[in-house]
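Form 12-C: Joint structure prediction
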Amino acid sequence: MSGKTCLVCLGTGCVSAGADQIYEDLRQEVSRLGLSDVTVDFTGCHGCCQCGPIVVVEPEGIFYSQVTTEDVHEIVEFHLRDGKPVKRLFYHDPVTNEAIAHYRDIMFYSKQQRAVLLNCGHINPENIDDYLEAGGYQALRRVLLELHPEQVIDEVKRSELRGLGGAGFPTGKKWEACLKVLGEKKYVICNADEGDPGAFQDRSVLEGDPHSVLEGMIIAGYAVGAKEGYIYVRAEYPLAVKRLQIAIAQARESGFLSKNILSSGFDFDIDIFQGAGAFVCGESTALVLSLEGKRGMPNPLPRPRTTEVGLKDKPTLLNNVKTFANIRWIINKGADWFASIGTEKSKGSAVFSLTGKIENCGLIEVPMGITLREIIFDIGGGIPEGKVFKAVQTGGPSGGCLPASLLNVPVDFDSLTTAGSMMGSGGMVVMDDSTCMVDVARYFLEFTEKESCGQCSLCRLGSSQMLGILRAISEGKGKIEDIDILIELGEAIKIGSLCGLGQSAPNPVITTIRYFRDEYEAHIYEKKCPALVCKDLISYHILPDKCNACMICLRNCPVEAIKGGKKEVHVIDQDKCNRCGVCISVCPKRFSAVECIPGRLIEGGLK
Amino acid sequence: MIEKVIFTIDGVEVTANKGDTIIKAALEQGIYIPHLCYHPDLKPFGGCRLCVVEIEGRGLTISCKALVEEGINVVTENPEISKMRRVAAELLIVNHYTDCLQCAKNTECKLQEIAARIGIEEGRLQRLKRGTRNISIDYSNPFFIRDHNKCVLCGICVRTCDEIQGISSIDFTFRGHETKVSTFKDKPILESTCESCGECVVRCPVGSLVPKEVHKPSYEVKTICPYCGCGCGIHLGVRAGRVVGVQGDRESPVNQGELCVKGRFGYTFINHPDRLTTPLIRRNGRLEEASWEEALDLVASSFQEVQEKYGPESLGGLSSARVTNEDNYLFQKLLRSIGSNSVDCCARLCHAATVVGLATTTGSGAMTNPISDIEECKTILVVGSNPSSNHPIVNYRIRRAVKKGSRLIVIDPLRIPLAEIADVYLQHKAGTDVALFNGMMAVILREGLVDRNFIAQRTNGFEYLQEFIMERYSLDSVSEITGVPVKDIEQAARLYATASSASIFYCMGVTQHTCGTENVLALINLAMATGNFGKPHTGVNPLRGQNNVQGACDMGCLPHVLPGYQPLHSDCTTYWQRLACKEDEGAAELITALEFDFYGKSPQAVPAGKVSDHIRTKFSKAWGVELSDIPGRTINDMFHPNPGRWCKALYIMGENPLISSPDLQHVREAIESLDFLVVQDIFLTEVAQMADVVLPAASFAEKEGTFTNTERRVQRIHRAIQPVGQSKPDWEIIQAIAQKLNLPWKYQSPKEIWDEMRQLTPHYFGGMSYERLEEQGLQWPCPTEEHPGTLIMHHKSWCGEENRFSRGIGQFSTVDYRPLATERPDADYPFVLTTARKLYQYHTRSMTGRVEGLNELLNEERLQINPMDAKKLRINTEDRVRVTSARGSVETSVEITDLVPVGVVSMSFHFAKSAANVLTNPAVCSMSVTAELKVSTVNIEKIERRGVPK
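Section 2 - Result
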């Protein structure tokens, strides 16, 4: 077809912003106007979720951001019918504020190097033909018809791909180990139990390009000698589950799954298992137990590797979604090509969910070895509202928080670990100077404490003990020795915990103490929260010379803490005030009479 | 030989068994490594993190999981470990509710041990925040308390319930700091599937699970559990002359320390105020206290009177499956010495059909294989048996076997708990066992799954059986008769026949039928055809009900045999006689074998008809009396519908036929008709209340002797406390009566009785001296002092030939299904009543009825009825019903459950108030005289208002 294709992003992010209605409206509008040469279709996530809902018009590659249903008429009439793109809806560069029309010119994308995410946002994930057109299942065809399992594994080994679930174990080595275990029955499991708060890269791949994961799994099955595969995906990802179901059905129909795949004599089939949402089930042995219908609790070391004793005690190959999604590229483009990307010890690309105080929130794929600075300031567009970068946390809730001085650290498995953080599953949370690091540590620990499976004493009791101390500090009840206790507990938990969850849970606390100790000390000694976040350690104050006695704050205060009257300067009763901040938000800009200051005010002075 | 490994712990050279964990090796060497979640019985958990050690060059590891290896150097403590370990210990302590002085686990608490070993500093504890969890304590179970505020989440209880007991009624729930051990839906433990066995309570390392009754004993006495036939080793805890607790004996080969709810908690009957403490004599219609002298005189004179009036055979005795072998031996000796062979025991009501079936075809009537075999069986067939209620230790073993990969076949009209974990469950119509077993045999024959070599070398009669089955049994007809789908019959047959070892376990569901012996024979055919005899993990295994029912039979408390099943007479219609008259080769061989053992001569065929004469002569000589060869009465005769068969006087020892025998109306009439009744028991049971004289006996805890468990293991019991009140051990009472009757008995101890018995039954017990029985007991046959006892029967004949059945050649039987063998439901009595037993009660409740906690768990009969039937009859859970059969009627509460199929109802026979045996059918199996307790037709009516049916 020579005409235009209008692609609506129907990833979870854009759908939650109303993209499904936009898609419907676009179709209706196109059909109402009888634009027979225009196709309206949908795709998975583009990654730049900040810009959603996203509509892309091909073949020009015009990129519309933050589209609403009201904009549909304009896009159809002016652009699709008349060929005049709607400038108003172009992406605006956060730094230069320049309107950018084309996908390829957006910094967010131009600095990325996409393989895993290549198809995401460009093909219809519910249509296997789109995937085939994009070269899908060619790797599988080659593997099944031309290569021995050993050759496949050799290729993966030479690529030096490391597991992208977080631990970074060499994938080829794992496959080889699984192949070498003798056994009639083996399993391949795709770990799609993405539980980190703020991480959504696995989900986006499954929603945007499910066949790439299936293809990787089938190749893995062939390589290690397995005939059955499971995708362990969280039940909280209904769209991913739905698209996987569709993809599996289509793959079966097209002869890529089930019996005698591509007439090669190789059988392989995949089932979906929906996890019930326990974070710890992302750990391989807990995942296997959960898949067996038991309570997901990690099996402590020493133990045989899952490649030897896994699901139903059979040899099991377990890899992350992104690891599987990389396989077809390694087969198609060769191990050498893959190994040429990245650093000496970390090859290929890494996918991050870039979130927090950053202009371009979203999903990015970058070559290993890129610096944090490039990610945050080039791709991410820097810190919004003119605020200053303070820290970045990588690797999910138990990653460390790295300060500005470490912005030049290259992003790869080993460098991040050395800096006190980790690659993890690819969360990346950016914080600005309005972030309290004590509060951040508390927030992440709250998550891991809740998600501890409870099996081992250090993780279960240690993290809740640390959390209690952090809460006390943020409430101004911290004691001098608390920092030492936190470090002591944190180190014990790291050394002694049973599984990766416990072993990394103290990271946010330990790194924030290491890099932002002054903030802890301010909370403890001065009873002040310098970032004005911890409610117990800040005060709101009405500047008498600016107050116009307009009564607005007084009327809005939910706890009736503001005294005053007409023509009478207002005063906040600090004992009654609950630091909700309503007063500062309602005080008319022209007065700006309310200020928030660190520490607690008592009659005229700081407590 | 177990391979040894040499390595060092903190520089000390240690030798350990290959495959052991580091912590096990260390603790055995007396090297302490702190630990909380480690337990030698359980799989590693790795939760407490206290046992972390360093293996030099490899880093830290948990010693409860890491195995010993040649040459490794283990460091139990370094700065890193001690820092981490201290933190872990401190965290556990600040989150533990500490009331050590009041805590039942004080001085036995593992957390105390850790605190003491590590050295906890108060200052460091105070830096930490105390745990704030406040979880209400679960008092629901009558025997133990669950206090989560002391729980350290070591998971030992969870793993015990799962790995040891196979019940899995608890697991971890919630996450993070909220994690706790809960039942399903976090309900009180009493509302869960928990069977109150208390294994978790025993293993809990802290005060989180503690018994409600905590009286630490001042000393312990090793003995055997008085309940079911498993025969678990126990230690009775004694304080101030009272039994205050029970511990499982970890050295026992039967239970390895495990116990069930009755065994662990059901001991309070021993010192119960209801115990009989003095003899009672009926005066003016009331039982009044009397002296021993008065009572014994009255018994002796009454016996003499009755015998003079009606002949010596008019006196009958019911022996007890709960007293010792020595007591039983003396009991039958007494009766026989004064001229009556009418001595029987409750085995008549349970496994008489087994004894007939198994002994006739194989040469021995008891379990062929030991309990310790179960866990390694490849296929287990459980039929007509509910081990969950009746043989809990066997149940645990079966569950563990299934966990390890054994295949399980369950055959039962009731959906027993084991059915839930079975590979195939056949719910056949009650009373159609023969058809079902023959159907399975048809599959085995058709598919060629038989063991041809075994059949050729070791059996007789296969061709005839094959022809008979192939001709008569099509699967379609079997399916129609039994109600079991063809494919299930096929699957069960294949699972059983193709396994490299398959073992059958059965119980009353097989034997308590008018075709009971036929059922047993049909089962034996299956095992014989597939070669499942005489090898480990195979066999045909009847599970015996009471602690010494095997012993009571072995001791000759059966009317037709003397101790050791030696035939007493050759001219009555008992199975021995039938056997002898058949004149087939196998029978002759068996008789020869017995003869051989008695006289120590080489085998010499004695004419079958003469054997009993030889034996009677031997006993007459030994006992100094002339033994009668007049056939004695079975229980069935004693309470027969035809009064002509009744005795005139009865001596009942530790038995309660007024609850346990079928058709109670007739039992009562028979007892009322007696000229004289003497009952010897520990409580005033229902039948004792009708006695002329009641003699107070000592309980098992108060005497010495031996019990024989279901696997033929003879084990010593020991006196833990003095007999309560004036009660006496049964053997002393029997001897006193004998002396009053001018018999020259002078036994000083049970040992003397035992040794006399051994001399007379060398083929069974010759080698079983008390000394040899002391540790773990011995399994009969054990003919000589050198003989190690017999773990597995039928790999050697009585004559000592290898690869032979006990009787020599195994005999196939051709038994046909008889549709009219059991009652059929009709318009008047539309339901089939099948009796059963309950975990929390035992027999006629004379013991368990006096254990408060057990009554709390189950205090009344609940007729089990299917929801569809209940709906039809408009019966709700809280309703009471009247159950009526042709023989009588009782009232009972109901339990609506699909564990029973439509058209079938089930009751236990434990409760006097709703005595199921009022209803049951006294028809008997002609070969074994076992009554049809499993199929009685009844009618059920809802009682609209109390006592007033609409």
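Section 3 - Comments
The interface with chain A takes residues 36, 44-50, 52, 60-62, 65-66, 80, 83-88, 91-92, 94-95, 127-129, 131, 152-153, 155, 171-172, 174-179 of chain B (CB under 8 Å). Residues 292-310 of chain B form the longest helix (19 residues).
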